[in-house]
Amino acid sequence: MSSDNIVFQSFRCIKRRLLTKAYQPTIPSVPSLAWFLPISLDNMKNQRRLSKKKTDEHATLHGVMFPPQTYKRREEAVVDEILLSEVSSGFPALNLHLNEIDQSYRHQDTLETSPHSPTSNEPVPVAKNRYLAYLRHTLFTVYRRLFTIVFLVNAVPAIFMATHRRMSFSALATAASTNLFVAVLIRQSFAVTCIFRAAKLVPWSVPLIARRWLAMCYCYGGIHSGTAIAGTIWWIALSIVMLVEQVCKSSASGLRFSCYLAWIVALLLCIIITFALPRLRRKWHNAFELTHRFLTWTSLILFWTQNLLLVSHTVSTTPKHTFFGHLTRTPTFWVLSALTALTIYPWLYVRTWHFTATLLSEHAIRLSFSNTLPPFSVIRLSTSPLMEWHPFATFPSISPTGSPENALLISRAGDWTHRIIQQAHNQAKHTNSSISATRTIPLILSVRLTPQPGVLSLTPLFPRIILLTTGSGIGPCLSSLLLAPQAQSIRLIWCTRNPEATYGQSLLNLVRDLDTSAVIIDTDVRGRPDLARKAWEEYMAFGAEAVFVLGNERTTREVVGQLVRWGVPAFGPVFDS
């Protein structure tokens, strides 16, 4: 290796180390080069002295005030100036290499910086009562408020039954079955579609505060969780009443067996709720899906059996009613019938679709299909329909032949997505060269023909919005960009690692065509920025009415929570629904 190349590589490491320190969350001072090179460091000391002068919100450099986000790039400029002025004069190869790095960074600056980025030094707002704001958006979220309302509604009949001592088998069974029916109904695709479409009918002339509350309709999961737990509590109450007041005092074998069934169902419902708790659901997601599906079916069958035994016992004690006549007169029968229909309904629409998988990288693939879907649709895919289903947001696309189609992005985010991507790559290796050259292969997956809208389908509620997404979340955002109303303006912030290498140049070009001022942040080069701060800056500069966040669970929760505490209408998927 030549001496120029050795110096070339050495100073590349020096600059990388300096810039790594410069990208820390707090505003750093430029580190000394004394332990790198035995050279004069007067210029470096001056820069260190200047960089230490900072105010509460901003840093001073070369006598100019810069906000923290801009200061990171100014810190880089200082490093470039020092390296160039101190050592490059004696090393032509190093001088050439540093110039190439500077050009690449300047190109990256244009990639990551929107022309609408704010230049003011205005700090982010501070809540008047930060403790109240924290409680409001952690313990008292809309999801939990809906959960609480469900319990308050159930408290009314519970108090009435307790005060009037009317805890009959029929009343308790009806209360339990009604709550469980609502829990299943609110999760059906047609119910979710009705909720979202009703919200989108509101015009922009309606005050922002009303549209802001309507946009929170995606928190309907609070009703699902609340009614499921309330139904379980009603069922446990029924089991206790049967055990204490009736079954233990009766010799009827039918009632004893009915009591056993009631307690088995209560146990199964408790297991379902336990695995649905957020921490357990994240840790054992496959177990959550299996218990939610198979134990629910088992509980429904036992519920029917127990109800038929109770009706049989009632008919035997009151001969004036026939079995079928008394059965059809009980509310529980009709609620159970509707509950059974809702359980069977989605499985009638399971189909097998043919997809064309485009290999974007080792991290992501794109699935295209010719089947038609409503705008902003989320479909569920599976390789084993009885075991697991995974939702993916779709966006409209154009096939190579020019015909319209739909597409979705899959990135490595779990064991199932890892298997699908690996299967696509393995299949590409064993296909003929013509298919491999285009990096497209056919895939067959099971699909539920019951698509439902996602959170981003609510973006038309606002005339000007910010879309903040990470990684493959760019897929759903493309729907909002492609299907936006003509008068709507959207600013996109996309934070991902090496977007061109991960998702392909064609997708990157599409993003730039849809939003010429999109802020694309390459985390491989810049690291992960403060997304909440970045969203707030673009929100202020763009004059937006709302921010929609789409990322992983932790990122979405933290960014949405921070923005809302700053008074910004922010929305993102609720993952524990």
Give the topology, please.
Layout: H1 3-22, H2 42-51, E1 59-61, E2 64-66, H3 68-87, H4 92-112, H5 130-136, H6 142-164, H7 169-185, H8 189-200, H9 208-214, H10 221-246, H11 253-276, H12 278-283, H13 285-317, H14 323-329, H15 331-344, E3 350-359, E4 364-369, E5 377-382, E6 390-393, E7 395-398, E8 404-411, H16 415-429, H17 433-438, E9 440-448, E10 452-453, E11 464-470, H18 474-482, E12 489-496, H19 499-503, H20 505-514, E13 519-522, H21 523-526, H22 531-542, E14 546-550, H23 553-565, E15 570-571
Parallel strand pairs: 11-12, 11-14, 12-13, 14-15
Antiparallel strand pairs: 1-2, 3-4, 3-9, 4-8, 5-6, 5-9, 5-10, 7-8
Helix pairs in contact: 1-3, 1-4, 6-10, 7-10, 7-15, 10-11, 11-13, 13-15, 22-23
Structure at a glance:
56% of the residues lie in helices and 14% in strands. The chain has helices spanning 3-22, 42-51, 68-87, 92-112, 130-136, 142-164, 169-185, 189-200, 208-214, 221-246, 253-276, 278-283, 285-317, 323-329, 331-344, 415-429, 433-438, 474-482, 499-503, 505-514, 523-526, 531-542, 553-565; strands at residues 59-61, 64-66, 350-359, 364-369, 377-382, 390-393, 395-398, 404-411, 440-448, 452-453, 464-470, 489-496, 519-522, 546-550, 570-571. α7 packs parallel to α15 (331-344) and α22 packs across α23 (553-565).
